[in-house]
Here is the input.
Amino acid sequence: MALHAQFEIEFRRDGTIHDENQIAKLLDGLAGVTNLVVVSHGWNNDKGDASALYDAFVRSVEEIAAAGIVPGAHARKLGLVRIYWPSKRFADSDLIPGGGAASVAAAGKASSESLVRVLAELRKDPVLLGGSEIDDARRVHLDRAQALAADLEHSAEARREFVQSIRAILNPDEKHADDGSSEFFTIEPDALFQRLSGDVKFTPAAASGGATAVGGEGAAGFIGDLAQGATAAARRIANFATYYQMKTRAGTVGRTGVALALARVREKRPDLPLNLVGHSFGGRLVTAAASTLKAGSEAVTMMLLQAAFSHNGLAERFDKTNDGAFRTVLRDRRISGPLLITYTKNDRAVGIAYPLASRIARDAAAALGDENDPYGGIGRNGAQHTPEADSGVLGDLDAQYAFKRNKVVNLRADRFISSHSDVTGHQVAYAFWHGLIAGS
Here is the structure.
C-alpha cells in the first residue's frame, strides 16, 4: 500500500502545538517514509468534518496508487500528516441568503436573520477546532454591533459605530492590497456601507462532465446574494470579518506551528520530500508554512484545492506596484514544485466571498469575482499575474500530465469539482500523484 503511516497534529488558535507528543510520534515514525504528505482542511466547524475530508482524500490516493495508472506511485511509502486547526465554516445561507434564487424581499428577510447568525458566530473564538468558547472582549464589541442593527438603515452614527465594533475584533497586521483588506480598515464607514448595500452576483459554470451548474442556471445565468440595503451591507461586513479572521488564523498557524513541525522534520530527515496539500483556507495555511522554508528548498511540492485566498496571492506586481502576499514562495523558490492549483466557477463559496473584496475596494455594480476582477479568489480563477503559471485542465484518469519543477499549473476543474468541498475525487488524487512524482 502507498500509505505507510498517518499522524495527527492539532494546533491552537495562536499557532502553538496542542500536544507535543504528536510531534514526537511524527518524528519517531519517519523511518521508511519516502514522502511526507501534509494536508490541511479549510473552513470546517468540527474535527469530524475535517476527518471525513481527510478519509475521503486518503481513500482516493490509495486507490489510484493501487490501480497502477501512475508510474512509480505504488512504490512510494507515504507518511500523511493530518493538520487540525480552529477554523470556521462559511455557510451558503449566510453568503447567499434566500438560496440565490429568491425575490429581493425574501432575500432581505433571510439577510436580516443571517446577520444575527454571523454576529453570533463571530463572538466565538475557539482555542481548538470544534470549540465554542466566547471571548469576552469580542462579545462586548459584537453585542454592541447587534444592538445597532435596528438603526442601521436610517442612522449614519449607527453605521459608523457598527463598523468600529467589527474592526475592533480584528488584527490589522494581516491586511494586504491583494484582497481588499487594506481598504476595509481605512475606508469611511458610510462609504463601506454604500459599497456593500447592493446585491452581489457571479456567473456560474455550465454543467459539464459530472459537475452541475451552480443553481442550475447555466453559464448565461447569474446567482448571488440578492439582498439590498444597510442590513445586507452589515451582514456582508460581518462575513468579511469572518473571512479576515480565518485568513489571519490560517497565516498564524502556518507560519508558526506548521512551520516549526516542518523544520523539525527536515532536521531529522533533510532530504525527505515534502508534499503540501491545502483545501480552502488550508491552502493559505500550507502556503504560509511554505513561505518560511529556506530559499532554494528542494523536493517540496504543493497542491491547492479550491484555495481561499486572493488570485493575486502569488503574483508579481499585480497592480504594477504590489506583489502578492506569498510572492516569496516562488521568487525565492521556497518550494521546488510543481505547484498545482484547482479552480472552478462551480465554487460559489469562493465565488461569492471574494466579490465582497471588490465592493470594499471599489464601487462596482456588475457581477464580480472572475479572472478580470482585481480581487477574485484563487479557487475560482487560479493564480493570476504569476509568471511561473501555466494553464491546464483537471483531467480524467487517462490525462497525460507533464508537470515540471519550478512551475505553477492552474488546473481548471469544472468537470470534476462541483462545489467548494468536492475535492477528494479520483481525478484530484490522480493529479496529486503526478505532481508528487514530478517533484520528488
Summary: Residues 230-268 form the longest helix (39 residues). The mean pLDDT is 90. The CA atoms of residues 336 and 406 lie 5 Å apart.
